[in-house]
Amino acid sequence: MHLPLSDDFLSIVLNETPLLDVRAPIEFNKGKFINAVNIPILDDEERRLVGTKYKEAGNAAAIELAESLIKNEGKEKRVALWQEYLKENPDAKLYCFRGGQRSGISQEWLKEANIDITRLKGGYKAFRNFLIQQTEEISAVTPTLILGGPTGSGKTILLNKLQNAIDLEGIANHRGSSFGSFTNAQPSQIDFENNLAYKLIQFHHKDFNKLVLEHESHNIGRTFIPKPVYDNFMQGELVLLQTPLDVRARITYEEYVVSALREYEMLYNDAGLQKWAENVKAGLKRIQKRLGNQLYTQLTYLFDEAYFIHTQSEAKALYIEWITLLLERYYDPMYDYQIQKSPIPIVFQGDEQSVLDFIKKQETKI
């Protein structure tokens, strides 16, 4: 039986094609693609048993064991779940790890149910290799504008106003600081790389002259930009966003207090304020050595006072006082040092509107 195969991975990325992943959940959770749904042909334990049988007795024995584990009822259940997904996503593609037996059997079962689906040639592994290769190649030839500025300058706000930007912190699901975690977990490293590849490939096929990125370190939370890609990104030019300290403190307050607290309250209800405060205190503890004992004690006292008042009434002014001290005494000196040591040439600096105007003049290919 000749069933359709495809390795047109570029089309999948550009069209964000839905994907049916029939690998075991443990494989899916280690690494997946955008718009992929996991409806496995073998669950984790079944996969383990079949894998052990393959090592001990070879391919034929492993297939026989898999068939005995699934049996008729299991097969019907799996096909029904796939059919339900494909009714909503008729253009979906199918894959397993190497595009071999598991996806091949799944494709045959769907054909028996009068459903045609294209299988990815080489499966997850081939698509993943394509994404890695494309990321390195595109980053090597793409001119970049690197948006810098002290903490709280509004860099992410500005990035989201541009069509030729990629929000690395958004992909990493992290704000990029000691206090930058969200209540929902960061993606796995593999997912981060896959998602970055999608964004970069999609950017490459649009009509823009330069890619705009935030001036990030190699790591964003617990994820990291692969070194060859990071080195390519940092070959660009630096644009500095200048924002007054009082405005930066308000921006930081809105993001790290108001928005963050809203997340915690949605997750923990009445305990949200306490959980959020514990997370902030843990962030302070992580940077205690760099702060020094005196500044750490001062910041902890200010935050505790603001938190105590917050449990009774509004504490915005005290939170902003705490944020301002943290910016002035910790983040600003650290950022000034980084800029002084940075080999990236500064080509422009100004307020938000002037930076936007500068970037947009260079936005479209001639």
Report on the architecture of this protein:
Its EC number is 2.9.1.-. Keywords: Selenium, Transferase. Helix 11 (245-268) packs across helix 12 (272-286). With 366 residues, the protein is of the alpha/beta class. The protein is built from 16 helices and 11 strands. It has helices at 9-15, 25-30, 44-57, 59-88, 101-112, 123-141, 155-159, 168-172, 189-204, 227-233, 245-268, 272-286, 288-291, 293-310, 316-341, 352-361, and strands at 5-6, 19-21, 36-38, 93-95, 118-120, 144-148, 211-214, 219-220, 223-224, 237-241, 346-350.
Features:
alpha/beta; 2 domains; Rossmann fold; globular; 366 residues; Oxidized Rhodanese, domain 1; 16 helices
Main β sheet profile: 5 strands, parallel
CATH topology of the largest domain: Rossmann fold
The overall pLDDT, averaged over residues, is 92
Radius of gyration: 25 Å
CATH class bucket of the largest domain: Alpha Beta
According to DSSP, the number of beta strands is 11
Span of the ends, CA to CA: 50 Å
The low-confidence runs, each spanning 5 or more residues with pLDDT under 50, are none
Strand content: 5-15%
**Helix/strand structural class:** alpha/beta
Query: Which second-level CATH architecture of the largest domain applies?
Result: 3-Layer(aba) Sandwich
